[in-house]
Design brief:
The chain is of the alpha/beta class. It contains 10 helices and 8 strands. It has 2 domains: 140 residues, Rossmann fold, CATH 3.40.50.1000; 71 residues, no CATH class.
Amino acid sequence: MSTKAVLFDAGGTLVTMDPGIFGDLVEPILGERAEPDRMLAAHYHAMAAIADNTHLLEGGSGVWWPWWLAQFLQFSGLVPHPDAVAALATSHGIWRLPLPGAVEGVAAVAAAGYQVAVVSNADGKVSDDLEAAGFGHLFDTIIDSSVVGVSKPDPAIFAFALEALGVEAADAWYVGDSRVFDLGGAKAAGLAEFVLVDPIGLQDGYQPRVAEIGELLELLGDQE
């Protein structure tokens, strides 16, 4: 097979915010919690929103990340209060709920002979979060932007994973939920393919895409 490795984003691709942990954080500020299903959908709506406001990336993560969190709160049916945004922006250990089929899907890709890795814009704790979510030691390497000092969509972050795996960009796929950070970075890095994770059918016009990671192995087989 020509494809040797599959790289994954983390948040919105493998894991999402744990509603219980999230609720414990924002309820003292907002006086209410969000419904889990609405939170899940809010993530992808907020990702679509930032794709329409890419000028925010010029200000760095100090600009776009609070903006994204405010969008997420609003799409979740909550008030985007600045104190809630600030609490979320400085929190750790929230992204620990595995998305449906994600653990099993990654395991299936690895069992089929592909190397698997994570390349994530994260807070230095993505390895801990993935282990807490049940991914164990599935990944051959995990690249956390806060550890390596470069973030998507900068293509340089992908070089850390490719070097650790010993594969060329042309032999690797990337799987993520953002057309800005993930698609933009993967294409700039020269990866062979980008697969969009779209569980709520928000990006009907983009291909290839999957509703969950469990669909990925079939897609890999179709395109080998």
